[in-house]
Design goal:
CATH superfamily: FAS1 domain
Order of helices and strands: HHHHEHHEHEEEEEH
Organism: Gossypium darwinii
Number of helices: 8
Number of domains: 1
InterPro entries: FAS1_dom_sf, FAS1_domain, Fasciclin-like_AGP
Strand order of the largest sheet: 2-1-7-6-5-4-3
Signal peptide: 1-22
Protein name: FAS1 domain-containing protein
Number of strands: 7
Strand content: 15-25%
CATH topology: FAS1 domain
Domain FAS1: 28-168
CATH class: Mainly Beta
CATH architecture: Roll
Structural class: alpha+beta
Oligomer: single chain
Length: 220
C-alpha cells in the first residue's frame, strides 16, 4: 500500500493547482489575515503585510492559489531578533506553498511526499503521524518535522491557512554567501524520492530593502 509511482502524485498536485482559475484577491487575503489574528497568530499576518510576500501572493505571475503555514508569534518574534533581514524574508517564503492543500489534501498525499514553496529550490517534506489529544488518537500532518497543530484555520477559494506548532527556518548552502542576490536555500536531506510537480519558477524571494520591515514586529 505504501509503494506509489510518481505519476499519480504529479497528477494529484497538478489537479490541485488547476482547481481554481481566479486569482487570489486582496479581499480574500484580508479575510485570511483577520482569521489568523483572531486565533492569536498576529506576527505572521503582520509580516505578510510589511514584506514582499503580500505582493507575491496577490500577483498571478507564478500561481494564483496558495497554502500558508503560520508559525506561533513567540517563535517568529525570536527569528526576527536573531536573524538577518534576508534570512527572515527567506523563512517567510518557506511558509508558503503555491498549491491549494487543505488538511484532507495533505493527508491524501502519498508517502513520501514533498511540496513546493515560494523559496526557490526548497521544498517541504510532508509526513503523517499518529498523536494523542485528550485521550483520542489522531492522524496528524507535519511539514519538515513541524506539526500542523491547527489544520484548516482558514479555507478560502484560493488560499488555505494552517497553524503550526513550530517554525520553518531557511538554511543557506555552504557555497552561498548571505549577501548573494542569487542565494539558494539548502534543501532538506531525506533519503526519499521527490514526488512533486515542477517548481512554479525561479525568482528571488526578496526585493529592495529585502522586503522586510524589522520594526513592524517590534512595535506589536
Amino acid at each position: 500500500m505504501e509503494n506509489f509511482s510518481s505519476k499519480p502524485t504529479i497528477v494529484i498536485l497538478l489537479l490541485l493547482t488547476t482547481v481554481s482559475t481566479a486569482d487570489l484577491t486582496s479581499k480574500e487575503l484580508d479575510a485570511a489575515i483577520l482569521v489568523l489574528q483572531s486565533r492569536r497568530y498576529t506576527l505572521f499576518p503582520n509580516a505578510i503585510s510589511t514584506s514582499d510576500l503580500q505582493v507575491r501572493l496577490l500577483s498571478s505571475q507564478n500561481s494564483s492559489i496558495f497554502t500558508l503555514f503560520a508559525p506561533p508569534d513567540s517563535l517568529l518574534f525570536s527569528l526576527d531578533l536573531l536573524s538577518s533581514a534576508r534570512l527572515y524574508t527567506f523563512s517567510l517564503f518557506l511558509h508558503v506553498s503555491p498549491h491549494f492543500l487543505s488538511s484532507s489534501d495533505l493527508l491524501a498525499l502519498p508517502r513520501p511526499a514533498f511540496i513546493d514553496t515560494l523559496l526557490p529550490n526548497r521544498r517541504l517534506f510532508v509526513e503523517h503521524a499518529m498523536s494523542t489529544r485528550n485521550g483520542t488518537a489522531l492522524l496528524t500532518v507535519s511539514v519538515d518535522g513541524v506539526v500542523v497543530s491547527v489544520p484548516d484555520l482558514f479555507l478560502g477559494s484560493n488560499i488555505v491557512v494552517h497553524g503550526l506548532d513550530g517554525i520553518l527556518v531557511a538554511r543557506y548552502g555552504s557555497l552561498v554567501s548571505e549577501g548573494s542576490d542569487n542565494a539558494i536555500a539548502e534543501p532538506p536531506k531525506f533519503p526519499y524520492q521527490t514526488y512533486v510537480c515542477q517548481p512554479t519558477g525561479d525568482f528571488a524571494p526578496y526585493g529592495p530593502g529585502d522586503g522586510h520591515n524589522r520594526n513592524a514586529n517590534q512595535e506589536r
